[in-house]
Write a structure and sequence with these properties.
The chain is α+β, with helices and mostly antiparallel strands and about 130 residues long. The protein is about 25% helix and about 50% strand. Strands 1, 2, 3, 4, 5, 6 and 7 form a seven-stranded mixed sheet that branches.
Length: about 130
């Protein structure tokens, strides 16, 4: 796929997160995808099913979850995007303050590598969560 097609597919992943629709990821994410989360300790997801579980878990923790692409660039099989995430904190996260039903947000950068129209590797570089 071209860089522009990969960017369009990344937009579809963000739409899946916003709608809370993990089944859309079947079309866009490789079954053996590896995801890394930098910024709050390194955590990895191994495989599509774990990725889909993380999407559902995020909606359990943050009501009205909304991701917005702020910047996106692509070259070849790589897409880099700066994304703003926000939602009302309604679910418990280990090691974090108790739910307060307030709007929280964070910005992160996502670096994705694509093969045959699917993400095979993704790295999230997190900022600091804050009340909005």
């Amino acid at each position: 796929m071209s860089a522009e097609e990969n960017k369009a597919a990344f937009h579809r992943i963000i739409e899946a997160w916003n709608r809370g629709n993990p089944d859309t990821l079947d079309e866009l994410v490789a079954p053996n995808v590896v995801r890394y989360y930098h910024g709050h300790g390194l955590v990895t997801d191994d495989g599509l099913e774990e990725y889909k579980q993380r999407l559902g878990h995020a909606h359990d923790i943050y009501a009205d979850l909304q991701l917005t692409i702020k910047d996106i660039i692509a070259e070849g099989d790589t897409v880099m995007a700066r994304v703003a995430l926000q939602g009302r904190h309604v679910g418990q996260v280990p090691g974090r303050p108790a739910p307060d039903n307030k709007l929280w947000g964070v910005q992160y950068c996502s670096l994705t590598h694509w093969q045959e129209g699917k993400v095979v590797e993704e790295r999230w570089f997190w900022g600091q969560w804050e009340h909005l």
